[in-house]
């Protein structure tokens, strides 16, 4: 577990996962939801017989209380001790509501042979990651989906071009060979997909499997930017959209039609229409019609001095990013003048 300096940001964000034995997850669901809602926490937590996964945000005191409740509270006991937990901050609440969901898996692979509680690859600390992935005998694989890879990835990493994690099994079958690929290193956003992916590769006979402990988020928080081998920004599943080194909010935004993350180049594309379309969904007229109607209702709500449902967090986050970019630009101009 680690915590970032608060940097005067009012919201604390906690990402957590752990593969643990939770056969009573259905009983835990309402208790956990009540605890979070009572503290004004928002976000999503997934409970499954194999463990917990999710990201939530709230005040500093509320998130600290939740972390304590999960690590040694009466409902979970000691089962979540050692969970992978990452803290960051946000200028605005990045979620709209609190959800605690029950699912068969905390990260869906649909491969029963992949059981991180029984077998998992070798963890590699962020400070040791560069040395590993620069070796010529190591195959480096990004286990995330294509839209995440598009925002940023490690140099030399292979992109499986998957739309969902379940497709990773097909990629392994067609592109990786345990007889040829003796050493495979993998990474993902926070580490959870890699734990399952590494367990899956071991079940298929791969000899040495490595994965980045804490994922890209831990790497960006730990490794100095001038030593980084990660190019771009890391996609996150909330209204921040992406983060960069130090886990500061990135420049990416979301297409409100298809939910694809957008870079500055995407937003400069002639096919981009704010709130309605982007280069990734330019041919999907059905999505455009729905997004155009939503944008119309948002514009009408703003004209009336209100906010369209679901618009508060997204618009506030956009304004906060614009403000930070303006402040950074002003600071650079002052430095030039001095």
UniProtKB/TrEMBL annotation:
- Positions of the UniProt region annotated as Disordered: 297-338
**Alphabetic keyword roster:** Oxidoreductase, tRNA processing
UniProt xrefs under CDD domains? RHOD_YceA
Q: Which Gene3D superfamilies match?
A: 3.30.70.100, Rhodanese-like domain
PROSITE patterns with a match to the protein in the record: RHODANESE_3
Q: Which reaction does it catalyse?
A: uridine(34) in tRNA + AH2 + O2 = 5-hydroxyuridine(34) in tRNA + A + H2O
The record's EC number reads 1.14.-.-
**Does the record bear Coiled coil in its keywords?**
no
- Locate the compositionally biased regions of type Basic and acidic residues: 325-338
Q: Which residues form the Rhodanese domain?
A: 134-228
Report the InterPro entries cross-referenced here. Rhodanese-like_dom, Rhodanese-like_dom_sf, TrhO, TRHO_N
Q: What does this protein do?
A: Catalyzes oxygen-dependent 5-hydroxyuridine (ho5U) modification at position 34 in tRNAs.
Give the family, as the similarity comment puts it. Answer: Belongs to the TrhO family.
Identify this protein by name. Answer: tRNA uridine(34) hydroxylase
Q: Taxonomic lineage per UniProt?
A: Bacteria, Pseudomonadati, Pseudomonadota, Alphaproteobacteria, Hyphomicrobiales
In the UniProt record, the gene name given for this protein reads trhO
């Amino acid at each position: 577990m680690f915590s970032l300096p608060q940097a005067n940001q009012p919201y604390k964000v906690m990402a957590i996962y752990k593969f643990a034995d939770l056969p009573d997850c259905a009983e835990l669901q309402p208790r956990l939801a009540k605890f979070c809602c009572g503290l004004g926490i928002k976000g999503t937590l997934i409970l499954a017989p194999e463990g917990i996964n999710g990201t939530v945000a709230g005040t500093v005191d509320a998130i600290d209380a939740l972390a304590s409740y999960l690590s040694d509270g009466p409902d979970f006991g000691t089962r979540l001790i050692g969970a992978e937990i990452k803290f960051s901050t946000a200028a605005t609440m990045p979620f709209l509501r609190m959800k605690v969901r029950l699912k068969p898996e905390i990260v869906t692979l649909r491969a029963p042979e992949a059981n991180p509680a029984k077998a998992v690859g070798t963890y590699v600390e962020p400070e040791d990651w560069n040395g590993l992935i620069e070796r010529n005998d190591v195959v480096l694989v990004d286990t995330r989906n294509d839209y995440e890879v598009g925002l940023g990835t490690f140099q030399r990493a292979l992109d499986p071009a998957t739309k969902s994690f379940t497709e990773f099994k097909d990629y392994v079958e067609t592109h990786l060979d345990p007889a040829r690929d003796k050493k495979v290193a993998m990474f993902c956003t926070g580490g959870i997909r890699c734990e399952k992916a590494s367990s899956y590769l071991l079940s298929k006979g791969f000899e040495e499997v490595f994965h980045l402990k804490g994922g890209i988020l831990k790497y960006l928080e730990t490794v100095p930017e001038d030593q980084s081998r990660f190019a771009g920004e890391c996609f996150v599943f909330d209204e921040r959209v992406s983060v960069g080194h130090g886990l500061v909010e990135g420049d990416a935004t979301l297409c409100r039609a298809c939910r694809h993350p957008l870079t500055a180049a995407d937003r400069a594309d002639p096919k981009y229409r704010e709130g309605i379309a982007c280069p990734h969904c330019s041919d999907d007229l059905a999505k455009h019609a729905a997004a155009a109607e939503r944008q119309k209702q948002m514009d009408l709500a703003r004209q009336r001095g209100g906010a369209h449902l679901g618009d508060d967090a997204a618009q506030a986050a956009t304004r906060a990013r614009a403000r930070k970019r303006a402040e950074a630009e002003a600071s650079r101009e002052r430095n030039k003048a001095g």
